[in-house]
Amino acid sequence: MTPTVAVPTLKLTDRINRIEPSATLAVVNEADKLRQQGIDVVDFGAGEPHFPTPQHIKDAAIVAIQNNFTKYTPVGGTSELRDAIVHRHAVDFDSDYRREEVVACVGGKHAIFNAIQVLVDHGDEVILPVPYWVSFKDIVRYAGGDCALVEADEGQSFRITAAMIERRLTPRTKLIILNSPSNPSGAVMSPEDMTEVVRLAHERGIWVMSDECYVYLNYTDRHFSVGSLREFRERLVIVGSLSKTYSMTGWRLGYALAPAAVASAIQKLQSQSTSNPTSIVQKAAVAALKGPQQCVADMRAEYTRLRDHVVGGLRSIPGITCTLPQGAFYAYPNVSSFLGRGAIRSASELAGKLLREAHLATVPGEGFGTSHHLRVSYATSVAELDRGLERMRKFLASL
Ligand SMILES: Cc1ncc(COP(=O)(O)O)c(C=O)c1O
Questions:
Q1: Is 249 a residue whose pLDDT tops 70?
Q2: CA–CA separation, 51 vs 44, rounded Å?
Q3: Residue located nearest, by CA, to atom 7 of ligand 1
Q4: With a 6 A CB cut-off, is 213 part of the ligand 1 pocket?
Q5: What residues contact residue 153 under an 8 Å CB cut-off, 6+ apart?
Q6: Host H or E run for residue 237
Q7: What was the pLDDT predicted at 3?
Q8: How many CB atoms lie within 10 A of CB 397?
């Protein structure tokens, strides 16, 4: 008799077991599987711009390669890039950061990951508005922190106020996360509401991390960054990204603006993990930040048109209600009236059926902390929006 070989049980760390894979990536994977079977899937799931990266940015990367700018750089980015980040932010948002207060990272998500590892310790609480971008919760958990969720008011366009946050503060609160414009709701905080939150945090000695990944995709006429609130800067970390602003998601370039001690701690962590962002991408990023900004305005204008189109279409489907998003490129329709119909009990089940039966990819609200919504990305063409809306209309009418 052959002896049975014992398979060792895999013992992974507690910290990796505390987190889950990204819900948005799960949808992308499932839609990809259907496509590989030759099925024509309409994609409202993607979290990225549909525009190509502007030509002058691509050219700068090509020149960088040809000039052999292909070696290690300082961990937090070249001085040229750090100065360009600081300059762009100062011109656009009236901030006054210095070179030693900025770190270039491998995407905005990396900057967020680094900042949270540096600020949040075991047992600390982090205020997280709901709906939230999927990764915040898991990154906080990875650091050993606990999220204290604050439900936004859907009736007031997913508003979050300082008073709502204040009710959730405890002696353990270490950090408040803001994300305006928001993924997934598209909500934009007013400058007044943001200022009140930052003031409250400052008074209580709590950090604020403001995720400005979509700050240039703000469709209101009030473009604002907490970076302009110079008197509160010693408790502020601003995280930005070139991904959405310049349609550069695959290039991986983001940054953190923070007091020098925090920026230096982020660099220390980065020096022991990724080291510098790709040298070639840094040159492309300088071209993006210092070059003509018309491309940003053009993309913003197109997103506004797409937003109006998709929200009009969603609202015309009986049973759907949809807040008008003021930024980013997501609509967040409420689908609660369909739950309980056709054995569908949750937004996840609805999104699953929409994908498998109507071949329309959306992201269910559960990944963002709400159970009555679907996230619809409108970063696509009007023709694709129309095809997807038609599939949604037909499918929901059949329930
Ligand atoms: C709210 C928010 N923050 C940060 C990011 C990170 O973007 P990146 O890592 O591409 O800069 C995303 C990406 O979808 C996002 O939606």
A1: yes
A2: 15
A3: 108
A4: yes
A5: 159, 160, 164
A6: strand 236-241
A7: 59
A8: 10
Residues 6+ apart with CB under 8 A from 26: none
Is the beta carbon of 334 within 6 A of some atom in ligand 1? no
pLDDT recorded at residue 369: 95
Report the percent of the chain where pLDDT is more than 70: 98
Helix axes 79-93, 279-290, angle to 10 degrees: 30
Does this model's pTM top 0.85? yes
CB atoms within 10 A of CB 81: 28
Buried b vs exposed e over 216-229: b needs ≥16 C-beta within 10 Å? bbbbeeeebbbbbb
Diameter of the chain measured on Cα atoms:
78
What stretch of H or E contains 128? strand 125-130
Share of the chain above pLDDT 90, in %: 92
Indicate which residue's Cα is closest to atom 1 of ligand 1: 183
Ligand 1 pocket check: which of 24, 114, 133, 216 to mutate, most ligand atoms within 8 Å of Cβ?
133
375 token code pair: 């996230």
CA of 182 to the centre of ligand 1 (A): 10
Angle at the Cα of 180 (from 174 to 183), degrees rounded to 5?
100
Q: Is 325 in the pocket of ligand 1 (CB under 6 A)?
A: no
Give the pLDDT confidence of 98-151 residue by residue, as tens digits.
999 999 999 999 999 999 999 999 999 999 999 999 999 999 999 999 999 999
pLDDT at 4: 62
pLDDT in tens, 180-208: 999 999 999 999 999 999 999 999 999 99
Q: Is the shortest distance between the CB of 243 and ligand 1 below 6 Å? A: yes
Please say if the pLDDT value at position 220 is more than 90.
yes
Distance of CA 362 to the CA centre of its chain: 16
Mean pLDDT of 289-298: 97
Span from the CA of 125 to the centroid of ligand 1 (angstroms): 22
Cα-Cα-Cα-Cα dihedral sign, residues 387, 389, 392, 395: negative
| Number of the ligand 1 atom closest to the C-alpha atom of 106 | 9
Cβ-proximal residues to 135 (8 Å cutoff; 6+ apart), any chain: 22, 109, 112
Say if CB 99 and CB 141 are below 8 A apart: no
Q: Is the CB of 241 under 6 A from ligand 1?
A: yes
